[in-house]
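subagent[fold] <- orchestrator: predict structure for attached chain, return tokens only, no commentary.
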Amino acid sequence: MGGQPLFILDEDAQRTQGDDAQSSNIAAGKAVTESVRTTLGPRGMDKMLVSDSGDVVITNDGATILDEMDIEHPAAQMIVEVAETQEDEVGDGTTTASVLAGQLLTQAEDLLEDDVHPTTIVEGYHEAAQLAQEAIDGEVLDVDIDDETLTSVAESSMTGKGTGDVEAGALAETVVAAVRQATDGPGSTRDQIAIRSQAGSSSSATELVEGIIIEEEPVHGNMLSSVADATIAVIDADLEVQESNIDAEYNVSSVDQLNAAIEAEEEELSSYAEAIAAVGADVVFVSGDVDDRVGAQLSKEGIVAFDGVDSDELQDVTHTTGASRVGSVDTLEAEDLGEAEDVSVQKYGDEELAFVQGGASSETVTIFARGGTDHVTDELERALNDALDVVVAALDKGGVVPGAGASEIAIADHIRSEAASIEGRKQLAVESFADAVDVIPRTLAENTGMDPIDALVDLRAEHESEGIAGIISEGQTGVIDDPVDYGVLDPAAVKREAVESATEAATMIARIDDVISSDA
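subagent[fold] -> orchestrator:
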């Protein structure tokens, strides 16, 4: 071959192999999880995230923090994906999943230093994850998933998050009422519950609206601001002079011809308002533009019209009121109309919102979240979304388990008790998984103001003697007690998904021993 070197990679490519690759990836993953660890629990802290353009986000929501961070390292991005998966599947527990993934990597790093092969670590972690799922199943409480239980689940989710001047308990009741309103049969439909936030008032003004809220104002200033027992039309078209599809010129050679053209145009525009009035509509939602002259005519007829309504909002109106979406005024008939108990327009600062309440054909509801500033309403909206998701998860996905770190203590205890029956070095990985799970109660203790080591020892002892033990925040510190007695409950689905997604990410990162990157 003449001794010529064989180049496979581009000369600008960078390659990291072996221990260096593993250490780099694990360090990146751990760094990401450390950024959210202090947000965990009822006394978790917030993060302020400032973008290049100066936009500010203040939150302790793990998914939001990781989404807003400008993360480039590919291994660190895998941790971000853990939070995204957790958010997509169950809507909460993103910080728990991320912190657990980071601690699994920390334990894996120690095992690698002890010459435990990555494949052994992966096998042990997967076996431990199965044991964890068994433990979660064993922790599911034999209780009725009634309003009281769901309120506890929602309150547990929101405690420690930014809820303004209103306590999590009051908001939890609103969340449960929203879910119950939207429940159809044995399950619940999350898509039927919307959240609309509006700055300008205290968070205590947050309320449940039995209907939808859209950010629209009437097309004419003289239109009514409220219509009771409204009959509603939804038109997916423009209400203005129709333009010809043919590129043609029209020569007007006399005043009579000009007047005739103007008269024909006026008649066309008037026909829109007359047809809507004739069919019996009180309120009309239009996807396109409404000509000013049509708006004026509709106003004279006592009809309230909204134009430029986007497709999603039109769908919400049809779903709520039972109206049919028609493509033109010409095809609008009485059977296409929907109904609502009330359609009203309310002004908040410079903005106007249309409330469509008491729709005839749906249980659609909206939580109208208020707050003194946009930052407050944004964080309140995130907290409400999480609460809605966990309540739905508790109803639809396998019940509830004790919160406050109690389930994690039970998981770690179960894994350790089964580890003795596992042969070889894989046992070390299984035991390390149990140690990693301890990071959740340990972090809760630390964030609550307790000594994390002492708290962990006490938790294990209490769990051994009583069968259940969690960290309850009281004043400036915490106590070891039964979280069920305090109403601290989590959906079992949140725990299951956190274990699964964290294990997948940690094992994937631990198996990588070669990183090849290009500067191109």
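orchestrator: received. Logging for downstream: The longest helix spans residues 255-279. The chain is about 50% helix and 20% strand.
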